[in-house]
From TrEMBL:
The lineage of its organism: Eukaryota, Viridiplantae, Streptophyta, Embryophyta, Tracheophyta. Belongs to the peptidase A1 family. Coiled coil: none annotated. This is Peptidase A1 domain-containing protein. InterPro entries: Aspartic_peptidase_A1, PEPTIDASE_A1, Peptidase_aspartic_dom_sf, TAXi_C, TAXi_N. Residues 1-29 form the signal peptide.
Length: 373
């Protein structure tokens, strides 16, 4: 999967994508306590959630970032949020090639390299066979994204500052990448962030490491506001007790991303005969993609529906192979909704119930239409 501009079995994980204005107010409260508490690391105190502010152009561009304090004394770094990749990495003063930050904003390693013989090193490689000339060698990494961007570096371990919703603070040592060779591709300029926050299902993600240390429940979510910004949270304190649909994750997926299904495609609430879809959820990608069969089903139904209205195909822009124009320009998304019927995914195994922490991996979406165009 890809990060917006920078371009991976799972623990029992809850991945939460919530429409910010539909569920939560503009601030979070610690009042929603976990229903099924489990024994945690004594450092975790009586809370299991940490919240980070999300910044950026959430709407309409779909770009958003979160900042974490790393090192001791702590230093703040901003990251692209990516649930479609596993490894977290930050631009590294090693020296650094392809870095976008000035030297004083780069991470400086300090005799804190992860060794090649550690299990965590094996977790970041596709092959389980580690190429170690000696067990004490450094753990190198290379990650490539769908947009052909990449980062090359070495794995390090340092303190991150985790502030719980009850105000207590812990500083566990977490492994992440120190990237000293970054590449970008495409017409877009290089991203302004210091790195990528990988929240995938693999053992190397921040979430998995914090859970393995007993510091949080294995839950990650982000809530985004149409006004811009929002929150990213680790842990289960902030999950609403109602107004959500639970969807099982596919246990058969060999990748480290989050995948749900089977789902069928609905147009204007009606079955399109497209079913058994496996859907991948990737916070690093702004667009929703359909396979050829599902795509053609949508195009056919939209085209037939628009024949009843005064629309005609617009062919003046070759970059938009399928486009319509009306008798007057659209002024807002609300205008579009008046003419185009909703498109939705119906998850056949979704469970409408009160919130409960179940022993499988689940995805939570807001009640109602999941995807609306």
């Amino acid at each position: 999967m890809s990060v917006k501009s920078w371009g991976e079995v799972a623990l029992h994980t809850l991945l939460i994508f919530l429409l910010f204005s539909a569920i939560f107010p503009l601030t979070f409260s610690a009042a929603n306590q976990p229903r099924n508490p489990k024994k945690r690391n004594p450092q975790a105190s009586d809370s299991s959630s940490a919240v980070f502010q999300v910044e950026g152009n959430v709407y309409p561009l779909g770009h958003y970032t979160a900042s974490l304090n790393i090192g001791y004394p702590p230093k703040l770094y901003d990251f692209d949020i990516d649930s479609g990749s596993d490894l977290t990495w930050v631009q590294c003063d090693a020296p650094c090639k392809g870095c976008t930050k000035p030297p004083d904003q780069l991470y400086k390693p300090n005799n804190n390299l992860v060794q090649c013989d550690e299990e965590l090193c094996a977790g970041i490689h596709v092959s389980k066979e580690r190429q170690c000339a000696a067990p004490s060698d450094q753990c190198d990494y290379e990650v490539e994204y769908a947009d052909q961007g990449s980062s090359l570096g070495v794995l390090v371990r340092d303190h991150i500052t985790l502030r719980y919703t009850n105000g207590s603070v812990v500083r566990p040592r977490i492994a992440f990448g120190c990237g000293y060779d970054q590449k970008y591709s495409g017409p877009n300029s290089a991203p302004s962030t210091a790195g990528v926050l990988g929240l995938g299902r693999g053992s190397a993600s921040f979430l998995s490491q914090l859970h393995a240390l007993g510091l949080i429940r294995n839950v990650v979510g982000h809530c985004l506001s149409v006004q811009g910004g929002g929150f990213l949270f680790f842990g289960d304190d902030l999950i609403p007790s109602s107004g959500v649909v639970w969807i099982p994750m596919l246990a058969s997926s060999v990748e480290k991303h989050y995948s749900a299904g089977p789902a069928k495609l609905l147009f204007d609430g009606k079955d399109t005969s497209v079913k058994d879809l496996e859907l991948i959820f990737d916070s690093g990608s702004s667009y929703t993609y359909l396979n050829s069969k599902a795509y053609q089903a949508v195009v056919d139904r939209v085209t037939n529906d628009l024949k009843r209205q005064k629309f005609e195909r617009a062919t003046d822009d070759p970059s938009l192979p399928i486009c319509w124009k009306g008798t007057k320009p659209f002024k807002s998304i609300s205008d579009v909704k008046s003419y185009f019927k909703p498109l939705a995914f119906s998850f056949q195994k979704a469970k409408n119930s009160q919130l409960q922490l179940l022993p499988e991996s689940y995805l939570i979406v807001t009640v109602g239409t999941f995807l609306r165009l």
